[in-house]
Amino acid sequence: MQTYDVAADGLRGLNATLQAQKQETNQTRWEVVNPKGSHAIAVGLDAPIDVTVKGSTGYYCAGMNKQATVRVVGSVGPGVAENMMSGTVIVDGDASQYAGATGHGGLLVIKGNASSRCGISMKGIDIVVHGNIGHMSAFMAQAGNLVVCGDAGDALGDSLYEAKLFVRGSVKSLGADCIEKEMRPEHLETLGDLLSRAGSDARAEDFRRYGSARELYNFDIDNAAAY
Amino acid sequence: MCGIVGLFLKDKSLEPRLGELLSAMLITMTDRGPDSAGIAIYGDAVDGQTKLTVQSDNAEEDFASLSNDLSEAIGTSVSLQANDTHAVLLLDGPRAGAARQALAELRPEIRVMSDGDAIEIYKEVGLPKDVTERFNLAGMRGSHGIGHTRMATESAVTTEGAHPFSTGADQCLVHNGSLSNHNVLRRKLMREGVQIGSMNDTEVGAAYLTWKMQNGASLGEALESSLEDLDGFFTFVVGTKDGFGVVRDPIACKPAVMAETEQYVAFGSEYRALVDLPGIDNARVWEPEPATVYFWSH
């Protein structure tokens, strides 16, 4: 186990050290202490290493992650795991706005609540939130799965493309072109797998699925008068 | 961008440390707002006395015989405590209105930052570290305070454009965001007779709250109606004699974090601003909901 003290050795040094880890590194386990809410902790990693951040972080923690597992023993600020490509990010506390935004792949787990715009423009990432999510979540979400064990705020899935949304609790309102859809066996299978990988004991059968009505994909000539 | 910090003490034993804790929080928010900084601090209210905080670009000359001149003009005793470009005038009795009128005659260049029983406002252009040092904010005591670091967008970098803005006796406002309907609202308020001194959007927000309250709204009601009438992005923190309030616009893209312990309630634009508060590791930390008015008071 390697330990890095952000307060003593600085943020640039942390990211430079973690980014320098090669595919076949022997230093696979890292502990980051004294993050003190700093921004951009453990960003741009590209090696199969396991990083545990002991404390809460600021903006963009674990952004652009590839391969690595980043665990935060605390809460995270805006944009956690933004544009993640692969790997796993696990947050023990809450996440601020736009968690997992534009993520292409990998798994983001928030054990507390996520606030507004969770999964905005997601492009293939899987996000599992054990608590609730805020308004405008999955806005223009293109691919991947957003799983919410609690409730969703206003305008869920507004202008949604092909991401799949699963919510166990209530949805305050659905955004434009987002509708409830049938839960088929393949969805239950995907959902069950995600819940188990995210360490949730929720039952897939208790969720509802939401997706795109695909009404916004093409211009409808009957709406011409509205423009 | 802009940074906001706020600290409301429940535990009186922390009151001598209010300025120190708040200054450190403010300096942490420097990279959210390096243009100017300000602080509103509440403390040391004396029964029967009113405080005016005034500012002058020409302080030495303007403050020299000000207490005597003002005392003569309004017929009550006045004492003055100068602090760099600012001074606190202590008046016997509720004479803030008379003092403001007299000051406009006696020292037209002086700006009145605040009036009330407990509030003092200090704000200037410059890095938060320099502003806190020039006023020795770290040495101040009090029951609660709010601070602001400004990254200017809607108007020039001046003392007048710095936050906090006074919204009435013992009340003030700081803002992170930008209001997009401030010009039309300024014209409307000025037609109603409200005085607005600068082209700053937040001053219009402050004037709006003052106007609402002059027309009978409580501060809570004024904040609720701001959600309808103000267009744009805002996280507002307001200070009152007894406490402070927080409201975010319905989109809530301007960040906000709150922390509460047995000893205090704290606000920061980012968690970074809160990390050195005593007992923060065991505090309840959360993000205030959009379009929801929060209040804490003694």
What does this structure look like?
The complex is a heterodimer of chains A (227) and B (298). Chain A is of the alpha/beta class and 227 residues long. Chain A is built from 3 helices and 11 strands. Chain A has an 11-stranded mixed beta sheet. Chain B has 298 residues and is α+β, with helices and mostly antiparallel strands. Chain B has 2 domains: 213 residues, Aminohydrolase, N-terminal nucleophile (Ntn) domain (Glutamine Phosphoribosylpyrophosphate, subunit 1, domain 1), CATH 3.60.20; 72 residues, Alpha-Beta Plaits. In chain B, 26% of the residues lie in helices and 33% in strands. Chain B contains 8 helices and 16 strands.
Number of strands of chain B: 16
Structural domain count of chain A: 1
Helicity range of chain B: 25-40%
> What portion of the residues of chain A fall into strands of 2 or more residues?
15-25%
CATH third-tier fold name of chain A = Pectate Lyase C-like
| The CATH homologous superfamily of chain A | Glutamate synthase, alpha subunit, C-terminal domain
Count of individual helical segments of chain A: 3
The CATH superfamily of the largest domain in chain B is Aminohydrolase, N-terminal nucleophile (Ntn) domain
Shape designation of chain A: elongated
Q: How would you sum up the global shape of chain B?
A: globular
Give the N-to-C terminal Cα separation of chain B. 31 Å
> Which CATH first-tier class of the largest domain in chain B would you pick?
Alpha Beta
Primary descriptors:
heterodimer, A: 227 residues, Pectate Lyase C-like, eleven-stranded mixed beta sheet, 23% strand, B: 298 residues, alpha+beta, Glutamine Phosphoribosylpyrophosphate, subunit 1, domain 1, Alpha-Beta Plaits, 2 domains, seven-stranded antiparallel beta sheet, five-stranded antiparallel beta sheet, 16 strands, 33% strand
